[in-house]
Amino acid sequence: MLKSKNGMEDGFLSSVGARPSTMLGPAATKITALVVDDDTINQMIHRRLLDNQGIRNQVVGNGKEAIDVHCSGKNFDLILMDMDMPVMNGIEATRKLRAMGIRSIIAGVSANSRDQEKQEFMEAGLDDYQEKPLTTSKLVSILHKVNKNG
């Protein structure tokens, strides 16, 4: 268990991993990821999970920022996309990225589990969908899809 600043054991931080994992081996170090989420705690969790797998990553706060990053010429192997965000939601951002020809694995990661919205999100062009909270095992499941495509 990790100790928080006040000396308390923090099971949550331990659950996202304290040390780099070797679950995917050296192949993971070549993977790049974009985290698209407006919630700073989710950004931290997703970033830590990716860091622990040795994956270089960048974080943006909404779908428009994800589009802008790609328009600036950056590309990623994996995009972790939240559904509910201000400015541009994950469904619209996923549609636009696919219309731009972006072939990255896009995994929807959302706390919203209503079937109709999940279906709309998948139809926008997702390769995978995981309910929050994202865990190491859920991330590894997504990363296996990245490795198959790469």
Topology:
Elements: E1 2-3, E2 9-10, H1 11-15, E3 32-36, H2 40-52, E4 56-60, H3 63-71, E5 78-81, H4 90-99, E6 105-110, H5 115-123, E7 128-131, H6 136-149
Parallel strand pairs: 3-4, 3-5, 5-6, 6-7
Antiparallel strand pairs: 1-2
Helix pairs in contact: 3-4
Taking pLDDT < 50 over at least 5 consecutive residues as the criterion, the unreliable ranges are 1-22
CATH class designation: Alpha Beta
Sketch the major β-sheet: 5 strands, parallel
Alpha-beta classification: alpha/beta
Architecture overview:
By secondary structure, this protein is of the alpha/beta class. It has helices spanning 11-15, 40-52, 63-71, 90-99, 115-123, 136-149, and strands at residues 2-3, 9-10, 32-36, 56-60, 78-81, 105-110, 128-131. The strands form 2 sheets. A 5-stranded parallel β-sheet has the order 4-3-5-6-7, with helices on both faces. The longest helix has 14 residues, at 136-149. The radius of gyration is 15 Å and the shape is globular. The N and C termini lie far apart (35 Å). Residues 1-22 have low confidence and may be disordered.
Descriptive key words:
150 residues; alpha/beta; Rossmann fold; 5-stranded parallel β-sheet; two-stranded antiparallel sheet; 7 strands; globular; disordered N terminus; ST_Response_Regulator; Sig_transdc_resp-reg_receiver
Structure summarized in a few sentences:
This protein is α/β, with parallel strands linked by helices and 150 residues long.
